[in-house]
Amino acid sequence: MIISKHLLGLEGVRREEISLILKTAQSFKEVLSRPIPKVPTLRGKTIVNLFFEASTRTRISFELAEKRLSADSINFASSGSSVAKGETLKDTVRNIEAMKIDMVVIRHQASGAAHFLTQCLEAGVINAGDGQHEHPTQGLLDMMTLQEKFGRLQGLKVAIVGDITHSRVARSNIHGLMTMGVEVAVCGPATLLPRDIAAAFGQDLLVFKKVDEAIQWADAVNVLRLQLERQKNGLLPSLREYALHFGVTRRRLEDAKREVVIMHPGPINRGVELESDLADSEFSVILDQVTNGVAVRMAVLYLKSGGEQEVMNGNGA
Fold first, then answer.
1. pLDDT band at 54 (very low <50, low <70, confident <90, very high)
2. Is the Cα dihedral 164, 259, 267, 174 positive or negative?
3. Are 223 and 262 in contact (CB under 8 A)?
4. Helix 15-32 crosses helix 168-179 at what angle (to 10 degrees)?
5. CA distance 311 to 20
6. Domains (ranges, CATH) in the chain?
7. Is-contact 183 157, C-beta < 8 A?
8. Which uninterrupted H or E stretch holds 183?
9. Which of 93, 20, 115, 107 is closest to 60 using CA atoms?
10. Three-state SS for 203?
């Protein structure tokens, strides 16, 4: 299978490629459980992590994935760099590439930043989240977590609840899950749902106006953080009002009278979009998502570095 050296989003990515990434991630997850959780797979490769936005889980997860693959990784932060002096993104990455790197992992506040880099660089580009566009590795690790929990993806029902308009996680999940045969629904306040959501994702996407209905329908609920830093004033009356009408609580799960898996990409606004004790409950797979994030990012870095043939032969991990 021929796959691109870039991962910019899950829109348009074939089912076969997603399956390959998930299969490879399972192999690398076994590596992570070894006494010495490291393989020489990317020894000699240099990867630069360009993070223009604050991040904890994603940045550390990529750094750890690179170390576990024995790659040389360099971490870049815009504060304290030439960007703070007015240097453009293009000049920054062209100068970095001149130092002979193999791959760039980028998180940026502007939608399309990762795609822009592919026009400037010969190195592979991995999107770690760009504006309100996509966050593909989060979508992949969510799929891996669901596959582990249910033993399949085909035919599952997943409801994505919260701030859909401002969420790159929602977009990657919708594209990836629907490609893998998952039934997907969204739920949130009308002010936080894109007006053209059906046109953007197709008529198969369901829209629930009430969170109780979404929970009763779903096998798993992916609860999104309110993107308060991206929102305009007036979209919500108050956080208390949001929690009352759209917060996922134990009572709502019990009223559904069925077992529902709770997911969250983090960070969690406890007591707002998700009841605090529910995040740590038997319903939650949130920490599994974090663990799987390292394995998925190892798989993506490996495959986008040209390792597919070795994986197919069973020698990659």
1. confident
2. negative
3. yes
4. 110
5. 9
6. 15-134+290-312 (3.40.50.1370), 136-288 (3.40.50.1370)
7. yes
8. strand 183-187
9. 107
10. coil
124 φ, ψ (degrees, to nearest 5): -70, 150
- DSSP letter assigned to residue 225: P
Least confident of 71-85, 145-159, 189-203, 271-285: 71-85
Residues making up the chain, counted from first to last? 317
For residues 91 and 94, give the distance between their C-alpha atoms in angstroms, rounded to a whole number: 5
Judged by DSSP in three states, 192 sits in: helix
Instruction: Dig out the tokens for 273 from the structure.
Output: 């979009």
pLDDT of residue 200: 80
Closest CA to 54 of 127, 116, 126, 128: 128
Longest dimension (CA), the chain: 59
Element (H, E) at 50: strand 46-51
Given 3-state DSSP classes, what are the helix, strand and coil percentages for the chain, each rounded to the nearest 5? 40, 15, 40
Q: Are 304 and 7 in contact (CB under 8 A)?
A: yes
Q: Helices (DSSP H) in 33-150: which residue ranges?
A: 57-68, 89-97, 113-118, 136-150
Taken in order 287, 156, 4, 93, the sign of the CA dihedral is: negative
Q: Which residue has the higher pLDDT, 1 or 12?
A: 12
- How does pLDDT run across 135-152, given as a tens digit for each residue? 999 999 999 999 999 999
Distance from C-alpha of 274 to C-alpha of 115, rounded to nearest angstrom: 33
CA 256 – CA 317 distance, rounded (Å): 42
